[in-house]
Amino acid sequence: MSIAANLVIALVALLHVWFLILEMFLWDKPSGRRAFGLTADFAAQSKVLAANQGLYNGFLAAGLCWGLWLGGNGTDIQLFFLGCVLIAGLFGGLTANRKILAIQALPALIGLALVALA
Questions:
Q1: Residue 49 burial (CB < 10 Å; 0-12/13-18/19+)?
Q2: Neighbours of 117 (CB within 10 A)
Q3: How far apart are CA 45 and CA 101, in angstroms?
Q4: Tens digit of pLDDT for each residue in 48-99?
Q5: Which residues of 55-74 are buried (b: 16+ CB within 10 A; e: fewer)?
């Protein structure tokens, strides 16, 4: 079970690295605008806010990687950061776009369940 938990945590971390890249570097580029359904004008106006959001996603990824790196001693850290991801995913899914529930919240919830079972 811990191998499955670690794989899901790694996947969640990689997703958040991807979110960092999208929000910090690609926000106003065609691929970033397409991913978030943005107009060029809105992307240009909100670029700094998106970069800040991307940085937070990077911190979530770093925390998850830290928990993995610590192995069995990192369980509390894994649970904390998965919980943060879940709460952010639920908030985003309820306030911004329902797709966030499946893309961000669900993997975190699966990770939490697997860590708890391990």
A1: exposed
A2: 10
A3: 26
A4: 999 999 999 999 999 999 999 999 999 999 999 999 999 999 999 999 999 9
A5: eebbebbebbbebbeeeeeb
